[in-house]
C-alpha cells in the first residue's frame, strides 16, 4: 500500500489581516510597548472552508490582542462561537527598525516554535488543548510615520523524518464506508462545531466508522486504545481544495504519530504488547476534513483522506525542524507590506476624507468642478483677525492645503469670541502672535494643512517712517513681495484702509489675483482686483486699446479698492476715537464676507481656461447678469470680453464686487473699471514701484506723505480741475470702504 | 449623495440619532423601515436559514443600547468575489453607464490626472478594464500628489526573501485553491477577492446598512476605495460612501441607507401574493436588493420557500 502512496501535501495558511489589527498594534506600540520587543501573545481566528472557491484564511483583527476584562473576553468568546470560528494562538514579535526586521534571526524563531510544538505534544498539553497544534508567529515592523506595516507570518509545522502520505481522497458523501452514514456524521460535526469557543473538542474529534457518531476526544486514550480501522479523525479544515487538506491537519497528524508511537514504545518497554506493525511501521489513519457549504457541514464538501501517518525518530524530536514561513504576493517566502497610510493614519484619513467629500461633489453634482486646482491654490491671508479666521476656515472646507497668515498683532482678550481660530489660552501672557496662533489652530483642525504664520506689520502710507527704521520697513516691503510671489491668491483682510495700499499695488504690479474683503458696521464689501496693468498692456496687442470716454483707463481691466477714491490713503487711526479705531462691526458680518471672498476665488478658478488670466473675466453687475440671462449682450462693465460667453462659470457668476449689508439684508453686485489715476493700481504708481532704483524712494515718500501719491498719479491735478463736488462725495471716513 | 451634504448630514445624523427615540411601531409594509426589534427578528431568521451569517456583539464600547448586546450586527466572512462588477458590466456592453461626462464618478475620474501611466495601473494580465484604470488613478489621486509612498520599498524588490523551504509536504502556493489563477470564457484572468460583509441597523434611516471589507487574491486588505470596483456603476456613484465601520472603526465601503426604505417598500410590495410577507423575511428581501448593488459578491441569501 505505502508504495503507492504519494506524499500528502497540505495547503498552507493564508494570513488575512484586518486594518483594525494594525491600528491596534500601533496603539499598543505607542501607548504601552514603547521600544520593547518582547513578544506578545495574540490570537487569530479561522473557520472551516465555507465554499469551494476560497480557503478560509487565518484572520486577525483588532481583538486579536485579547486584552480586556473578563466581560470583554467573554463577549469576544461569544462572538467567536457565534460565527463558528476557531482560535489559533500566536506570538507576535514587533521589532523597532526595518533593519532589525530584515536581519531578524527567523531561524531561531522557527526552531523555538518547533521545540515548543514537540514539548506541547510530548507533555500531553496538546492532548487537551488542540489549538496548540495550530500556532503561528508574526514578525512585524511598524513604521508609524507612514503607517506602513511590514509583516511576515509563519505557521510552524513539524517536519518529520518520513512525511505523511495520502492513499486516496474523495467526498464524504461518496466514501465507500462512511458514505452510508454521511448525513449522520455531518449533523454530528455540525453539533460539535457549535460547542463553546473554548472547548478543545471543536478542533478535532473522533467519528465512529460504523455508526457515524461523533465523540469528543475525552482523552488521548480514546485514540490509543482503539483499533485505527474503527474510527476516523475529524478535523476542522479551512482548505477548499479537493485534493489537499489544510495546514491545520499537519501537526495533528504529527501529534497522532508521536503520541501513539510513544504509547506503543512504552507498551513494548513494559512488555505488554508488541504491535504487530512495530513502532516505526507506517500506520494508516482515516481523516475527515470537515468543510461547509451554505453555512452547514456538508457531506459533499467535506472530504475523506486515507492517510499514512508520518514517522519520526527520537533524534528528530530532540532537534526538531520547523517549516511554514508564509509566501508573499510573489509566491516566494517573504515579508509583506500593509500600507495603511491612506486608510488608517488619522491625518491621512482626514486628508482623504476632505478630498473625497469634494470629489463626491464633483462626481455627483458638478463634473466641471476643479477640485484639485482649487485645493492646490496657495493662499496668502493678509490679516488674521475676524476676516482672516473666517476666510481660512472656509478655505479648509475647499480642501486648500497651503495657507499663510500675515499679521503684526498679538491675540488680545477680545479676539477669541469673534475670531474663530483663537481661544482664551492664546491671550495669556500678553497674547500669542496672531499669525502663528492662527496657523497653529488650522493645523489642529486639520493636520493635513500647510499653514504658516508671518509676524509682520504691513507698511502703510501716512505712517511716516523714521530714518532708523527705514531699512526694516523697506525690508518688510520686500518680504511681502516675496510672500505674494510664493502664493497664487492674496486675500486682503486688514482692518484699515491704508494697510491695503501696498498689497494692492504689489499685486497690481504682478498681476496676482487679489480678493479684498472689508467690513463696515453693518455692511461689507468683497471684491477682486483687476489684473496687473502691465499684464494688460502685454496683452493689448490682441486686445486693442479700447479707451472709453472716462479717460482711457478701462482697457478691460477691473478696478481696485482705491480706484473709486480721490483721496490717497492716509493715517486713519491716529485722530480717531476708540470706536473708530477698532473694527466695530456686527459680529455676523465677518463670516458672511469671509465666505463670499473664498467662494469668489473658487468661482474665479472656474471662470476661464487654464493659463488665462482669471481677472480678465467679465464682471457681473445685477444689470449685466439680468441682461446676459435674457440674451441681450450689453455687459456694462463686463470688459472687453463681452463677445465671449457671458462669463458665467460652472459655479455661477463671478462678480467684480459684492456689496451687502445686514441692515436691509441686501446684496448687490457692482463692476467698476480701473481708474487711470488710481493711487494703487494705475500705470504711474506701478511703474514707479517696479523701477528697481527708484522703488525704495518712491515707497518711503508714499509712506511719509499720501499727498505724494496724489501728485504722482495726477489725482491732485484732477481734483483741482474738477469743481464738481460730487467727485468728493465719497471719502474714506466712516465705513472702511 | 452630495458630498457636503454627506458630511453635514453625517454630523446631523449623529446628533439626531442621539435625540431620536427608536421606532417602536412596525411600519415595514407601509414605509419599508424596521424597528430594532424587527431587525433582530429578521436577523435571527437569516442566521437560522443561512448560517453563513452570524450575529456579533462586537466591542462593548460601540454597542447600541437598542439592540441586544450579543446581536449588534450580522456578519458573513470570506465571501468570494470572482470578478469585478465594473468589468462585468463593461463586457456586458453597458458602457453607456460609464461614458456620460456629465455625471458619474468613473467618467469624472479620468480628467487628465494620471490614467494609464500611473504606477497603479493594472498589470497587463489584469482585465483590460477602462473603468478599473480610472478607479486606480482616482485612488492614486486620493493620496497627496507628492506622496512619500515612493520611498516605501515595493515588496517585490525587498531583498529579504527567505529561502524556499525544503518541504515536500507543503502545497506550493501556485497550487493553492485560492490563488490558482483561472480564466473566464473570454480568457481574462480572474483574481478572486474575498469580502467580509456586515449588516448594521441604522437608527436614523431605520433600515439595515451593509458594510464591505475586502481582501485581494492574496488576502491582503483592500483599500476601501477599491471596493468600489465591485459595486455596480449605477450605485457606486450614488449611494456608496466610505465611513468608519460603526463597530470596528475600520474605514469601510458602505452602501448608504438613504434610499433603502423606499426601495424596500417597493420590493415588499412587488412580492405581493396572497399573504403579506412577514417581517422575518425582511433581510432576505434586503439582501436580494443588495445583490443587485454588489452583483459579483457571492454571499448567501438563498430565500426560503415560504418567501415565494
Ligand atoms: Zn485702483
From TrEMBL, chain A:
All residue ranges annotated as the Ubiquitin-like modifier-activating enzyme Atg7 N-terminal domain in the record: 8-344
Record-annotated active site: 582
Gene Ontology cellular component annotations, sorted alphabetically: phagophore assembly site
Predominant location: cytoplasm
Pfam family, one: ATG7_N
Subcellular location per the Swiss-Prot or TrEMBL entry: Cytoplasm; Preautophagosomal structure
Keywords: Autophagy, Cytoplasm, Protein transport, Transport, Ubl conjugation pathway
Gene Ontology MF: a single term: Atg8 activating enzyme activity
Keyword Transport: yes
Single Gene Ontology BP annotation: protein modification by small protein conjugation
Domain THIF-type NAD/FAD binding fold: 362-602
Region of interest: Disordered: 611-651
SUPFAM superfamilies xrefs: Activating enzymes of the ubiquitin-like proteins
Highest taxon in the source lineage: Eukaryota
Alphabetical list of InterPro entries matching this protein: Atg7, Atg7_N, Atg7_N_1, Atg7_N_2, ThiF/MoeB/HesA, ThiF_NAD_FAD-bd, Ubiquitin-activating_enz
Keyword field contains Protein transport: yes
Coiled-coil spans in chain: none
Subunit record text: Homodimer.
Job description of the protein: E1-like activating enzyme involved in the 2 ubiquitin-like systems required for autophagy.
Stated family: Belongs to the ATG7 family.
Record's protein name: Ubiquitin-like modifier-activating enzyme ATG7
Lineage: Eukaryota, Viridiplantae, Chlorophyta, Mamiellophyceae, Mamiellales
UniProtKB/TrEMBL annotation, chain B:
Extent of Acidic residues compositional bias: 143-168
Keyword hit for Cytoplasm: yes
One Pfam family hit: Autophagy_act_C
GO biological process: autophagosome assembly; autophagy of mitochondrion; glycophagy; nucleophagy; protein transport
Record localization: Cytoplasm
Cellular component, GO, one term: phagophore assembly site
Family annotation (Gene3D superfamilies): 3.30.1460.50
Region described as Disordered: spans on this chain: 93-170
Similarity-based family: Belongs to the ATG3 family.
Protein's name according to its UniProt entry: Uncharacterized protein
Amino acid at each position: 500500500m505505502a508504495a503507492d502512496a504519494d506524499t500528502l501535501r497540505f495547503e498552507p495558511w493564508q494570513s488575512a489581516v484586518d486594518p483594525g489589527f494594525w491600528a491596534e498594534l500601533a496603539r499598543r506600540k505607542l501607548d504601552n510597548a514603547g521600544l520593547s520587543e518582547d513578544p506578545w501573545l495574540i490570537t487569530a481566528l479561522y473557520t472551516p472552508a465555507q465554499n469551494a472557491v476560497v480557503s478560509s484564511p487565518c484572520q486577525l483583527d483588532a481583538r486579536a490582542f485579547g486584552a480586556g476584562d473578563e466581560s470583554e473576553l467573554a463577549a469576544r468568546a461569544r462572538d467567536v462561537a457565534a460565527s463558528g470560528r476557531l482560535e489559533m494562538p500566536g506570538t507576535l514579535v514587533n521589532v523597532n527598525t526595518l533593519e532589525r526586521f530584515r536581519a531578524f534571526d527567523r531561524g531561531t524563531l522557527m526552531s523555538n516554535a518547533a521545540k515548543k510544538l514537540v514539548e506541547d505534544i510530548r507533555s500531553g498539553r496538546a492532548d487537551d488543548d488542540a489549538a496548540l497544534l495550530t500556532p503561528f508567529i508574526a514578525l512585524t515592523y511598524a513604521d508609524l510615520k507612514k503607517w506602513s506595516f511590514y509583516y511576515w507570518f509563519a505557521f510552524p509545522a513539524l517536519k518529520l523524518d518520513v512525511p505523511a502520505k495520502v492513499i486516496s481522497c474523495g467526498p464524504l458523501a461518496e466514501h465507500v464506508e462512511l458514505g452510508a452514514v454521511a448525513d449522520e456524521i455531518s449533523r454530528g460535526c455540525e453539533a460539535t462545531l457549535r460547542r463553546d469557543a473554548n472547548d478543545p473538542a471543536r478542533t478535532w474529534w473522533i467519528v465512529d466508522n460504523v455508526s457515524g457518531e461523533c465523540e469528543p476526544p475525552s482523552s488521548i486514550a480514546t485514540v490509543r486504545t482503539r483499533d485505527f480501522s474503527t474510527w476516523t479523525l475529524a478535523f476542522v479544515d479551512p482548505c477548499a481544495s479537493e485534493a489537499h487538506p489544510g495546514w491545520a491537519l499537519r501537526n495533528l497528524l504529527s501529534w497522532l504519530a508521536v503520541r501513539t508511537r510513544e504509547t506503543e514504545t512504552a507498551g513494548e518497554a513494559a512488555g505488554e504488547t508488541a504491535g504487530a506493525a512495530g513502532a516505526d511501521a507506517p500506520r494508516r489513519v482515516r481523516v475527515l476534513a470537515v468543510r461547509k457549504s451554505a453555512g452547514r457541514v456538508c457531506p459533499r464538501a467535506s472530504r475523506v483522506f486515507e492517510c499514512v501517518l508520518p514517522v519520526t525518530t527520537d533524534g528528530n524530536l530532540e532537534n526538531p525542524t520547523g517549516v511554514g514561513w508564509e509566501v508573499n504576493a510573489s509566491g516566494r517566502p517573504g515579508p509583506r507590506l500593509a500600507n495603511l497610510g491612506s486608510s488608517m493614519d488619522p491625518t491621512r484619513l482626514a486628508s482623504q476624507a476632505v478630498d473625497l467629500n469634494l470629489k463626491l461633489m464633483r462626481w455627483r453634482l458638478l463634473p466641471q468642478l476643479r477640485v484639485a486646482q482649487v485645493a492646490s491654490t496657495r493662499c496668502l491671508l493678509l490679516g488674521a483677525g475676524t476676516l482672516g479666521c473666517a476666510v481660512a476656515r472656509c478655505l479648509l472646507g475647499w480642501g486648500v492645503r497651503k495657507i499663510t497668515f500675515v499679521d503684526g498683532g498679538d491675540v488680545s482678550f477680545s479676539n477669541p469670541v469673534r475670531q474663530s481660530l483663537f481661544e482664551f489660552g492664546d491671550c495669556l501672557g500678553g497674547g500669542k502672535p496672531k499669525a502663528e496662533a492662527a496657523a497653529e489652530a488650522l493645523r489642529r483642525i486639520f493636520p493635513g494643512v500647510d499653514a504658516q504664520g508671518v509676524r509682520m506689520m504691513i507698511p502703510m502710507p501716512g505712517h511716516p517712517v523714521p530714518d532708523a527704521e527705514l531699512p526694516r520697513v523697506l525690508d518688510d516691503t520686500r518680504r511681502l513681495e516675496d510672500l505674494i510671489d510664493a502664493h497664487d491668491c492674496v486675500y486682503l483682510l486688514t482692518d484699515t484702509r491704508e494697510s491695503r495700499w501696498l498689497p494692492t499695488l504689489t499685486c497690481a504690479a504682478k498681476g496676482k489675483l487679489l480678493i479684498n474683503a472689508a467690513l463696515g458696521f453693518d455692511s461689507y464689501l468683497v471684491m477682486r482686483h483687476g489684473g496687473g496693468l502691465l499684464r494688460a498692456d502685454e496683452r493689448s496687442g490682441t486686445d486693442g486699446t479700447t479707451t472709453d470716454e472716462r479717460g482711457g483707463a478701462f482697457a478691460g481691466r477691473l478696478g481696485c479698492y482705491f480706484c473709486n477714491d480721490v483721496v490717497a490713503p492716509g493715517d486713519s487711526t491716529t485722530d480717531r476715537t476708540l470706536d473708530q479705531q477698532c473694527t466695530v462691526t456686527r459680529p455676523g458680518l465677518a463670516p458672511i464676507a469671509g465666505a463670499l471672498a473664498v467662494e469668489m476665488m473658487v468661482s474665479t478658478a472656474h471662470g476661464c481656461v487654464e493659463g488665462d488670466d482669471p481677472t480678465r473675466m467679465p464682471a457681473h453687475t445685477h444689470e449685466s447678469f439680468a441682461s446676459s440671462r435674457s440674451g441681450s449682450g450689453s455687459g456694462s462693465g463686463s470688459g472687453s470680453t463681452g463677445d465671449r460667453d457671458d462669463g458665467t462659470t460652472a459655479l455661477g457668476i463671478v462678480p467684480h464686487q459684492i456689496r451687502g449689508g445686514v441692515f436691509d439684508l441686501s446684496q448687490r453686485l457692482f463692476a467698476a473699471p480701473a481708474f487711470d489715476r488710481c493711487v494703487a493700481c494705475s500705470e504711474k504708481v506701478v511703474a514707479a514701484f517696479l523701477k528697481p532704483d527708484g522703488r525704495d524712494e518712491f515707497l518711503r515718500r508714499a509712506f511719509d506723505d499720501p499727498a505724494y501719491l496724489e501728485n504722482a498719479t495726477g489725482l491732485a491735478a484732477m481734483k483741482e480741475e474738477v469743481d464738481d463736488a460730487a467727485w468728493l462725495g465719497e471719502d474714506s471716513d466712516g465705513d472702511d470702504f | 449623495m452630495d458630498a457636503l451634504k454627506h458630511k453635514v448630514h453625517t454630523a446631523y445624523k449623529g446628533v439626531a440619532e442621539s435625540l431620536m427615540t427608536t421606532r417602536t411601531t412596525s411600519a415595514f409594509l407601509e414605509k419599508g423601515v424596521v424597528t430594532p426589534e424587527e431587525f433582530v427578528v429578521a436577523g435571527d431568521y437569516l442566521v437560522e436559514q443561512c448560517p453563513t451569517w452570524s450575529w456579533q456583539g462586537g466591542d462593548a464600547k460601540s454597542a447600541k443600547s437598542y439592540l441586544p448586546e450579543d446581536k449588534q450586527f450580522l456578519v458573513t466572512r470570506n465571501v468570494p468575489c470572482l470578478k469585478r462588477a465594473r468589468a462585468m458590466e463593461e463586457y456586458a456592453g453597458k458602457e453607456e453607464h460609464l461614458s456620460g461626462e456629465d455625471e458619474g464618478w468613473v467618467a469624472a475620474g479620468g480628467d487628465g490626472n494620471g490614467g494609464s501611466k500611473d504606477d497603479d495601473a493594472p498589470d497587463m494580465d489584469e482585465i483590460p478594464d477602462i473603468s478599473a484604470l480610472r478607479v486606480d488613478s482616482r485612488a492614486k489621486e486620493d493620496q497627496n500628489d507628492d506622496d512619500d509612498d515612493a520611498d516605501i520599498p515595493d515588496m517585490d524588490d525587498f531583498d529579504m526573501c527567505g529561502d524556499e523551504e525544503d518541504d515536500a509536504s507543503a502545497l506550493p502556493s501556485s497550487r493553492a485553491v485560492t490563488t490558482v489563477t483561472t480564466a473566464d470564457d473570454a480568457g481574462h484572468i480572474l483574481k478572486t477577492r474575498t469580502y467580509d460583509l456586515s449588516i448594521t441597523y441604522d437608527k436614523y434611516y431605520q433600515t439595515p446598512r451593509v458594510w464591505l471589507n475586502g481582501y485581494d487574491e492574496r488576502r491582503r486588505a483592500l483599500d476601501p476605495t477599491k471596493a468600489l470596483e465591485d459595486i455596480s456603476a449605477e450605485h457606486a456613484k450614488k449611494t456608496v460612501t466610505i465611513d468608519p465601520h460603526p463597530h470596528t472603526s475600520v474605514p469601510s465601503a458602505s452602501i448608504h441607507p438613504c434610499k433603502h426604505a423606499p426601495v424596500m417598500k417597493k420590493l415588499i410590495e412587488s412580492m405581493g401574493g396572497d399573504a403579506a410577507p412577514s417581517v422575518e423575511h425582511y433581510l432576505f428581501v434586503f439582501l436580494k436588493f443588495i445583490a443587485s448593488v454588489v452583483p459579483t459578491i457571492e454571499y448567501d441569501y438563498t430565500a426560503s420557500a415560504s418567501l415565494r
